[in-house]
Design brief:
Strand order of the largest sheet: 1-2-3-6-7-10
Largest sheet: 6 strands, parallel
Distance between the termini: 31 Å
Strand content: 15-25%
Radius of gyration: 17 Å
Number of strands: 10
Shape: globular
Amino acid sequence: LFFKRVLRLSRRYNIPILTLHQPVWSIVRVFKDKKIFEMAKTASAGIVLHPPMNKLLNDPKTQKYFSFFCNKSKEYGVPLYVENMRRKIIGQHTIGYAREFIYADLLASHVCVPFEMGMTYDTSHSMIKTDSDFTEFKEAFPYIKNIHLSDFRGLKEHLSLGEGELPIERFFAFLKEQNYNGIITLELSKKAFYRK
């Protein structure tokens, strides 16, 4: 019902839906739901996909997960944009996602290339600010089709632009220099969105 309403509004006001974000039940590996592909095809949109959590790249379940989405993408003619994830550190341990899902250059070579996907580059997840961060971004750039744009500060992510450490001028100058013509999605936390 909600999707049909949004689609109707999109068509009435001639504002395209460019991406749909993978639903929660798909992220937790209950991914046999083809409904999102039907919705994306109806809207002529791509799908933003999260890598599986707490799984290594070479785990058979991870391979099955990406293969499922790759096959459905071809079946429905819907592009996929796998998202780089944030490193979570507790004590001296990194938890949550494998290295290949955190660093954009590794995500490009280990997921985008073999599974024929584009990338959603999340600025808050990457915490891009240093020269080495920009080097990683540049290496992944040919695969980036969607940017989740927000600011970050410490552990706070998806802040309004200008509230954190993202070098906004440098980031946009690079996009202009590279003639980026992909999608930019302003992704703000609920708190940042409603702040006046």
